[in-house]
Design goal:
heterodimer, A: alpha+beta, Protein Transport Mog1p, Chain A, seven-stranded antiparallel β-sheet, two-stranded antiparallel sheet, 9 strands, 29% helix, B: mainly alpha, 10 helices, 1% strand
């Protein structure tokens, strides 16, 4: 019976041994460079600046910027399927003695009316990277496609609001993603908060 | 006195002379022609047939196995009808299949995840990204399979490199196609056939540089050439992914939008023919040079 040779019968020449090692090394190094490129592309950001609102931030490269609504700005990942992952900042005027809790209650009441199956998951204090104290509210709701011709199945959206009280106004940072992708995408909120300057 | 009736003796049959080696390019071209006819036939003939999810999986899986059937008919069967059949073709195909399931698919789907960063990227980013990740992993696996199974013992002529390269590439392509059919849900018969045939053709073409580099490593070893050929094969993956996406996915217009799988199939055929032709030319030139040096008759070594 013929043996299955896993090693050559005759020894390789030194050039062949080096060539073989170089192939494997070149492939692994190239793959490493490719993964670094992936990391840089995925975490790449571009600056946003609104001096009137007093906000500086870095949002993910390639996301669509929208400043037309009742918020400072929103960016959406138009390439994500289903519900487009969203980051946004809005500023709410508040009374002098208002707390973050009051802002979150108002947001909850407003969203319970406007969003389907809205439900709060948790609320907890949070310290931002620059040391500011904030409150984090997690919630879910069901989003339906607004265009009836697309006939899309409604999706469950997992959202986070981070509320900071500063200079008599509440700054609300909102992050929303499809519930299935939330854990995978949450780092974008952390990256955004780390770059945010009021 | 005994006499023999010469009319009773059986006529002497001419001895059948088997060819010395199987022509790898002829088999590859036959397989390509039948695959393209199959894909075009399914795209046109079953354009109005709508399959449900289970049927899509089953039909796509059957189509994914069609190239293996053609390979058995055009390559493996013919290999048994020559004086010097190439050994361990089945082993190489199976190892390509298994290593793709064990390494290539997990690395691509769990670590590289092209959907996260390459699907909507620019053409140049796709070219570089696919080359540096998907292309390199796929070609490294082909290299390792060939290097540690048949390279030393069975790479005797340059055409052997092509034969084994197309075989391992078929194994890789078949596993990628089975993943598409069974795990990703497959597609309607026509688009599924076009996608499957495109994967087989592109893998076959992109695998040639690695095998050519291995052949060079045996005949005229240099330290850098095999690595450069592997990187060239990886680049072909990136080039193919960039071009096919641009060709198959048509632009939006006021009248219509969508994609054109037939254009993607045509590009895949042109891509495969271009690199089959390039390496056929390189191998024929090198063989002719060797024949001249050795004082052999033209064609004595190259098949």
């Amino acid at each position: 019976m013929q043996q299955f040779p896993l090693v050559p019968e005759r020894p390789l020449t030194r050039t062949q041994r080096w060539a073989n090692a170089l192939v494997v090394a070149a492939a692994l190094i190239t793959l490493g460079v490719g993964l670094i490129m992936k990391d840089q592309l995925m975490s790449g950001t571009q600056p946003f600046q609104d001096l009137a609102a007093g906000i500086l931030a870095q949002y993910p490269s390639g996301w669509l910027l929208d400043r037309s609504g009742g918020y400072v700005f929103q960016v959406r990942d138009a390439q994500s399927s289903g519900f487009h992952t969203m980051l946004g900042v809005s500023i709410l005027p508040i009374g002098g003695d208002a707390k973050a809790r009051n802002v979150l209650d108002a947001l909850t009441l407003e969203r319970a009316r406007s969003l389907a199956a809205y439900d709060v998951l948790s609320s907890a204090p949070l310290t931002l990277p620059d040391g500011d104290l904030a409150t984090r509210l997690e919630y879910v709701y069901v989003a339906s496609e607004s265009n009836p011709f697309l006939q899309a199945v409604p999706t469950v959206v997992h959202g986070v609001d981070v509320v900071v009280i500063k200079r008599g106004q509440a700054i609300v940072v909102t992050f929303r993603a499809e519930a299935d992708r939330f854990d995978k995408e949450e780092w974008r909120l952390e990256q955004f908060l780390a770059s945010l300057e009021f | 006195m005994t006499t023999f009736d010469v009319r009773l003796l059986p006529p002497e049959e001419p001895e059948q002379i088997l060819p010395e080696y199987r022509s790898v390019w002829r088999s590859a071209l036959y397989e390509m022609i039948v695959l393209v006819i199959l894909a075009a036939g399914l795209q046109i003939g079953l354009a109005r047939v709508h399959l449900d999810a289970g049927q899509r999986q089953a039909v796509s899986a059957v189509i994914a196995l069609a190239p293996v059937g053609l390979w058995l008919f055009f390559t493996w069967r013919r290999e048994q009808r020559v004086q010097h059949p190439r050994q361990r073709l089945l082993t190489v195909a199976l190892l390509g299949l298994v290593m793709t399931a064990a390494v290539v698919i997990p690395v691509i789907s769990r670590i590289v995840v092209p959907a996260d960063w390459l699907y909507g990227a620019s053409g140049l980013t796709r070219l570089i990204g696919y080359s540096l990740t998907v292309g390199v992993v796929t070609e490294l696996i082909k290299y390792l399979v060939l290097r540690y199974t048949v390279w030393w013992e069975h790479f005797e002529r340059r055409a052997d490199a092509v034969a084994y390269s197309l075989t391992v590439s078929l194994g890789v392509a078949t596993m990628l196609n089975l993943q598409f059919a069974l795990l990703d849900g497959g597609a309607q018969a026509g688009p599924a056939a076009i996608r499957i045939v495109s994967v087989v053709l592109s893998q076959g073409a992109a695998g040639l540089p690695v095998a050519y580099g291995l052949m060079r490593m045996k005949l005229r070893p240099t330290v850098y050439e095999p690595a450069l050929f592997l990187l060239f094969g990886a680049f072909l993956h990136g080039f193919y992914m960039m071009m096919r996406a641009g060709i198959a996915i048509q632009g939006f217009s006021a009248r219509a939008s969508g994609n054109s799988p037939v254009a993607g199939l045509i590009f895949s055929v042109i891509f495969a023919l271009t690199f089959y032709g390039l390496f056929a030319f390189l191998i024929a030139s090198a063989d002719a040079r060797d024949e001249k040096v050795a004082g052999l008759e033209p064609g004595e070594r190259s098949l």
